[in-house]
Amino acid sequence: MADNPLYDIRDERFGALVIGSAALEELYSGCRWAEGPVWFSDLNCLLWSDIPNERMMRWTPDGTVSVFRSPSNYVNGNTRDKQGRLISCEHGGRRVTRTETDGSITVLADSYKGKRLNSPNDVVVHSDGGIWFTDPTYGILSDYEGHKAEPEQPTRNVYRIDPASGAVDAVVEDFIQPNGLAFSPDETKLYIADSGSGKHEVPCHVRVFDVVDGRKLANSRYFCSLDAGHPDGFRIDVSGNLWTSAGDGVHCFSPDGTLLGKIRVPQTVSNLTFGGPKKNRLFITATRSVYSIYTKTNGAQYP
Fold this sequence. Notes:
By secondary structure, the chain is mainly β. The protein is built from no helices and 27 strands. The model has no long low-confidence stretch (mean pLDDT about 95).
């Protein structure tokens, strides 16, 4: 393991999470900025976003890659709700949408207090059906990943969509640029990345909050920061370890915030998800390509 150039081991606990003989496999190349991977166990496929090309792609284990949706309205982050439906963050529409089983699209959120959202970025779903998403300005900074525009919201917030009423509430309002987010396996904590502006003189770390009554956040505190690049998308495994995108690959942090190790990836990583029949295969979106690698652990996200 120590001799494998794929891994950068910082803590012996990392050895129990990765496979020494595993290979980093490039599944597809040809994106302009790959993002938002989401695994569909029931359909045995991976979907992801290619934001500047305004399309969503689909990969199946036989190696087939096809276009899932084009135009995509510059979709970025994706997840699934508890009914298995696709939930997406659209830069182009500045909204969060749900793809119904018949293929139609339902708008879940596109405004807050009568003003348009900035550009929803990443999204997770709580077991109570509440949908939580981040709303930085990356999709309106230029025409490359959306449509250039002035923000209407005075702050870059994290929101929750109530599953019963559909009401949109801001749960955090003090981020510079909120980005990736994920619940702990027991949903008592929510991790949220603040990627700042991409510059190191502003916040560029992951914070963690206590989840109160499934609806609110409390006790904000620093969790970790990266020594290469800035945190974008991330996922949690069944043991509560956080696997995050980084400038030099994937970084893995223990629940106490210790950097356990890295998986080196030849391109800047944007996001990742666990998938495969046993959720032990890490799928990684990295600039132009999608990679995968098998691990000894399993992803905590469902379905």
